[in-house]
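Supplementary Text 2. Reproducibility record for the structural model of the 221-residue chain.

All settings were left at their defaults, and a single model was retained for analysis rather than an ensemble. We include the record here because the model underlies the residue-level annotations in Supplementary Table 4.
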Amino acid sequence: MNVDIHKSWKPHLDLEFNKPYFKSLANFVKNEYKNHQCFPLGNQIFNAFEHCHFDNVKVVIIGQDPYHNYGQANGLCFSVHDGVKHPPSLKNIFKEIESDLGISYPESGNLDRWAKQGVLLLNATLTVRAHEAGSHQKMGWETFTDAVIELISTKKEQVMFLLWGGYAKSKIKRIDTEKHKTLMSGHPSPLSANRGHWFDNKHFSKTNFLLEQACEIPIQW
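Retained model, structure tokens:
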């Protein structure tokens, strides 16, 4: 497995990459990609770290698994490639932005534009076997991404953490809430959203307000 991340992350994560669990994880992922169809493409596994530089991180959005159908996952949580039909959760994210900020629903579901503004779009598990949701869970990825959350919490100041759904909310124990702001709501999936746990959370306007309070440039969602 080729660990392709922006140089700004390397001083902070090199130690993690050399731990026994990560070496075991890398071997597992290498074998999975060799013997099965897996997503995202091998050179996109670490896209969240390539497109959002450590020095620029000001918002963290935590997902769980990459999309597991062909052509969707691009290494950024909730994001899909240009030209790909928007999955239901992403549709609900865009609908909430439309309602919250009056921004027109976008044509592209590629959230790279957010990442470049300092939004780390971090799935807890960075790979998945095709059409088998959760197939790469509990193999070491969560240990790595928990370490990333703790790194940001320790080394950065006044970062916004958006925790959507029970799994993301469980990560609050990794975050110093004295230093950082957290916003929590239901997950944007139809199951949660249709029960009233997602829409009207206004997380996008609240995030920008809090960024401005911290003298940061707001995100162009």
